Amino acid sequence: MAYVGLAWWVSFCCALSACLRQRNGSIQAAEAWVGHLRTHRGAHEVDLIVARADRRVVALEVKLASVVDDHDVRHLRWLQEEMGDDLLDAVVSTTGEYAYRRPDDAIAVIPAALLGP
């Protein structure tokens, strides 16, 4: 089972990378950049950050789980506290079936299948 999960993860990362390369023109036109956030010694880590020229950002975490709990969004919640209104949105991509916003922190939960083929 771990191998299937790893294979899915690698496949998803490749698809995400291809999607970002396709969108690179749009990202550049919007004067934004894409990166990864990791604080000193790895205390906090966010898989994907899209930052605009005005330093406002969208943050994305990718999870293999179909259900998201507080542990899965801890780094996004930390980023919400640190950035305040400069964090435009926080998103968790999952293997689940439904897209929704978590009621406690308004973090979007989006199935990876909705992000592209």
Task: Detail the topology: elements first, then pairings.
Layout: H1 2-22, H2 24-29, E1 33-38, E2 45-51, E3 57-62, H3 74-83, E4 87-94, E5 100-101, E6 108-111
Parallel strand pairs: 3-4, 4-6
Antiparallel strand pairs: 1-2, 2-3, 5-6
- Low-pLDDT parts are none
State the separation between the terminal residues, measured CA to CA: 23 Å
The string of secondary-structure elements, in order, is: HHEEEHEEE
- Report the radius of gyration as a whole number of Å: 14 Å
How many individual domains?
1
The CATH top-level class label: Alpha Beta
How much of the polypeptide forms β-strand, as a percent range? 25-35%
- The computed structural class is alpha/beta
Please characterize this protein's 3D structure.
This protein is of the alpha/beta class and 117 residues long. The relative contact order is 0.14. It starts with a helix and ends in a 6-residue tail after the last strand. The protein has one domain (2-115): Trna Endonuclease, Chain: A, domain 1 (3-Layer(aba) Sandwich). The model has no long low-confidence stretch (mean pLDDT 80). A hairpin with a 5-residue loop joins strand 2 and strand 3 (57-62). The longest helix is centred in the N-terminal third of the chain and has 21 residues, at 2-22. The chain has helices at residues 2-22, 24-29, 74-83, and strands at residues 33-38, 45-51, 57-62, 87-94, 100-101, 108-111.
Short characterization:
With 117 residues, this protein is α/β, with parallel strands linked by helices. The protein has helices spanning 2-22, 24-29, 74-83; strands spanning 33-38, 45-51, 57-62, 87-94, 100-101, 108-111. It has a single domain (2-115), classed as Trna Endonuclease, Chain: A, domain 1, CATH 3.40.1350.
